[in-house]
Amino acid sequence: MATNTASTATTRAADGDEGPGEPTLAALAFQDSGFDGQFLRVLDTIPTGGADVGEAFITARRIPDGDRDAWNAEWNALGERILADAEKSLAAGHRVSAREGFLRATTYFRISGVFMYAPPMDPRFVAANARQRDAFRRAVELMDHPFQQVTVPYEGTELDGYVATPPGPGPFPTLILVGGYDGTMEETYVAGGVAALRRGYAVLMMDGPGQGAALVERDLHFRHDWEAVVTAQVDWLVARPEVDASRIAAMGRSWGGHLAPRAATAEHRLAAVIADAPQYAPGASASLLLPEEYRADLDTGDADELLNSVVRAGMEQSPGLNFSVGRGMLTHGCATPVDYLRELRSFTLDGLADRIDCPVLLTTGQNDPRIVDAQSLFDALTAPKTMIEFTNAEGAGEHDEAGAAALFSQRAFDWLDTVLGR
Question: Alpha-carbon torsion 195, 196, 198, 203, what sign?
């Protein structure tokens, strides 16, 4: 297993102390922060071929703030138009144009369903997942480097995925991409996979329980012991001749910023871990979704009917809360909001972080509300560790450094190259 002498000091990615009036990337196209954040997520894929500026902005300007039906309809319509154009290019023998179109359509189909995470599954949500998968697989058929659809054995069933390698014979250092709450393995290609392949890494992209096809088609839900997922992936990778088994790393982004380090607490064949939006004990704040006077009741189980009615009333008043709780209920397989809040509390690295024995990189965005306990995770780590804060001044202060994909890739992969001795 690779080791290094990475600094145990927290570092800032830029010098200076920015003031409260500095510009940020907020309100690019929407006043609704949820809509605008998801729009920035689309723009973040531009450097790796997942979107284009004009078609994304024009689509956003057709969508009224907060109108989730219009959001679905407009992004889906864009996906269909770009897909049709790609098919025309392919029919005429223009493979590169077709591949680029299929990749952009993948993003637009996926994002069309993002606000429909709630039980029971909306048929439009199911369709969005299927359409983005199918468009991506059309792109895969046209890739210039080796790219395979694969299945990995997992607890009596299997997980679908893709493995891609750069040109050449290998064996290659290999990166497992761990996605987030509402991502898909297809998204991870443009949110880490392309950058890794450009630098000579093989890449494993996979929907784990609670994500993409594993959720929609296999009815698998998130689990706190994510090492069960990553161990299955590592078992599969080490048997492949194109993989350098001594240099397998994991990179988790968004919710994956908790899942990837959790996996490393027990899966010690990982040579390095990157946690973008690192979260130490995200479940500890579950009770904060309740009014203060009801929080103690979450522990007793004596007032669940009341608590559920309180949360549902809050969901009716707050689109953000409605999205967060609905998405959580669906992806965790919970029947009620209170069931979800209780389930979420099992997601913690408290008492576990010191079991990680490989180098760890934590990356945070200055404005990201999800990284409130990133410093706690950094402090609890005893392995070689580095933390980088990306700032508003760099245009990189949002969740997952959205809008600064090239800068994130530069710093994250420079670190990974170093600790893996490349």
Answer: negative
Nearest to 135 by CA among 76, 74, 192: 76
- 152: Cβ contacts below 8 Å, ≥ 6 apart: 158, 159, 161, 206, 232, 233, 236
Q: Which residues contact 177 (CB under 8 A, 6 or more apart)?
A: 185, 188, 191, 192, 193, 196, 203, 204, 205, 206, 250, 251, 253, 256
Return the SS3 of 237: helix
Find out whether 42 and 9 touch, Cβ atoms under 8 Å.
no
Please give the distance of CA 191 from its chain centroid, rounded to a whole number.
Answer: 8
Structural class in CATH, domain 1-18+146-281+347-422: alpha beta
Count of residues in the chain: 422
Per-residue pLDDT, averaged over 21-29, amounts to 91
- Which two tokens mark 145? 């480097």
DSSP conformation letters of 150-199: EEEEETTEEEEEEEE--SSS--EEEEEEE--SS--HHHHIIIIIHHHHHT
8-state DSSP, 364:
E
Q: How many CA atoms lie within 13 A of 363 on its CB side?
A: 32
Instruction: Check: CB of residue 197 under 8 Å from CB of residue 145.
Output: yes
Predicted confidence band of residue 20 (pLDDT cuts 50, 70, 90): low
Domain ranges of the chain: 1-18+146-281+347-422, 45-144, 286-341
Q: Which of 161, 308, 321, 298 is nearest to 236 (CA)?
A: 161
The CATH architecture annotation of domain 45-144 reads Up-down Bundle (1.20)
- Enter the tokens of residue 422: 């490349």
Q: Residue 335 burial (CB < 10 Å; 0-12/13-18/19+)?
A: exposed
Task: Characterize the bridge pairing of strands 10-12 and 172-178.
Answer: unpaired
Residue 187: what are its φ and ψ, rounded to 5°? -65, -35
Quick: pLDDT tens for 174-227.
999 999 999 999 999 999 999 999 999 999 999 999 999 999 999 999 999 999
- Dihedrals φ, ψ of 247, to 5°? -135, 60
Whole-Å CA distances, 39 to 28, 103, 151, 356: 8, 17, 31, 35
Query: Per-residue pLDDT for 343 more than 70?
Result: yes
- 0.85 exceeded by the pTM? yes
